[in-house]
Amino acid sequence: MSCNIDVDVKVNIHIAAIVREALFLYTKQDSYEFPGQRTVAIRSMILALDEAIEANLPEEHQDEHRV
User: Would you kindly state where each structural domain of the chain is located, as residue ranges?
Assistant: First the structure.
């Protein structure tokens, strides 16, 4: 089986936020300095979810959270 196959999943923004939080909680105790390959992969997914969530927030919500 090849690991070079991409999978696209489409969920609403609320489900994406729930999954992102669950992944974060699952890996929060793992090392940042020497993470395992599984943790690196999960954290990569967290970053992808963060970007997708932010890109799909309504404009008024984005303005409230800008510094």
Answer: 13-64
In angstroms, what CA-CA distances link 18 with 12, 45, 49?
Answer: 10, 13, 10
List, in order, residues 6 or more apart from 11 with CB less than 8 Å away: 19
pTM (predicted TM-score): 0.79
Number of Cβ atoms within 10 Å of the Cβ of 27:
20
The answer to whether 27 touches 42, Cβ cutoff 8 Å, is yes
Q: What tens digit of pLDDT does each residue of 11-29 get?
A: 999 999 999 999 999 999 9
Mean pLDDT to the nearest integer, 37-64: 89
